[in-house]
């Protein structure tokens, strides 16, 4: 069940906050493996096979910080949120999805719609009930194009969706998509993406990860 989102920004966390490198805490357990197996073809687009597992690992950490959140809802929603990219025209992803007013590009709405369609195809045969599937779709629908988060779970998915970009793997991939060098992209993470984060643990994780990535990639020098 979705949980009400407190009004404060960033939302303070009642639980622990882990800011160590994400590679130290891969998503545990194998209960989501049947879902992964069902969407392997959709993970081959737009580096979803890198983005989705890393963002799931961040989502698990955020749920540790907010133990009252519906953990399964957060985990399944982040796992499937971008699978819709696998069913849109790949040429248009780079031409429309990352340039101009890319947040409002029609292809962004299309990947959200397709992501919901994939959730409705994949989840019911694996035993997830209609109410749960609808809650997952409510988060997927608008995850990039809707301004506000509806619930705590929605906010945690949004933060996990952004956090992977602070990791060197995220900087490597996303800087290429936006045709920026790693140093310039790291600057953008600090000035544009950190202010978009909704929860205090996400801000702490993003800041610590960005500091490590900048040091590792020597962005102070290679610019
Ligand atoms: Fe997306
Ligand atoms: Fe995403």
Automatic annotation (TrEMBL):
Disordered: annotated span: 1-29
Biased composition (Pro residues): 1-15
Coiled coil: none
Domain HD intervals: 56-163
Gene3D superfamilies given in the database record: Hypothetical protein af1432
UniProt xrefs under SUPFAM superfamilies: HD-domain/PDEase-like
Cross-referenced InterPro entries: HD_domain
Pfam short name (any one): HD
Protein name: HD domain-containing protein
Organism: Streptomyces cathayae
């Amino acid at each position: 069940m979705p949980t009400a989102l407190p009004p404060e920004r960033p939302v303070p966390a009642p639980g622990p906050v882990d800011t160590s490198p994400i590679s130290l805490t891969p998503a545990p357990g194998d209960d989501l493996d049947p879902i992964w197996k069902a969407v392997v073809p959709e993970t081959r687009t737009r580096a979803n096979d890198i983005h989705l597992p890393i963002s799931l690992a961040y989502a698990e950490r955020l749920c540790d910080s907010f133990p009252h959140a519906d953990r399964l809802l957060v985990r399944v929603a982040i796992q499937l949120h971008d699978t819709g990219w696998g069913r849109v025209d790949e040429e248009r992803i780079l031409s429309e999805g990352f340039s101009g007013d890319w947040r409002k590009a029609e292809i962004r709405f299309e990947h959200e719609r397709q992501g919901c369609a994939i959730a409705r195809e994949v989840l019911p045969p694996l035993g997830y009930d209609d109410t749960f599937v609808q809650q997952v779709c409510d988060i997927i629908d608008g995850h990039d194009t809707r301004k506000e988060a509806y619930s705590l779970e929605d906010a945690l998915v949004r933060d996990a969706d952004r956090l992977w970009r602070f990791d060197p793997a995220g900087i490597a991939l996303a800087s290429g998509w936006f045709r920026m060098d790693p140093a310039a992209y790291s600057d953008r993470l600090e000035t544009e993406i950190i202010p978009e984060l909704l929860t205090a643990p996400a801000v702490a994780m993003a800041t610590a990860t960005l500091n490590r990535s900048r040091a590792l990639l020597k962005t102070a020098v290679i610019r």
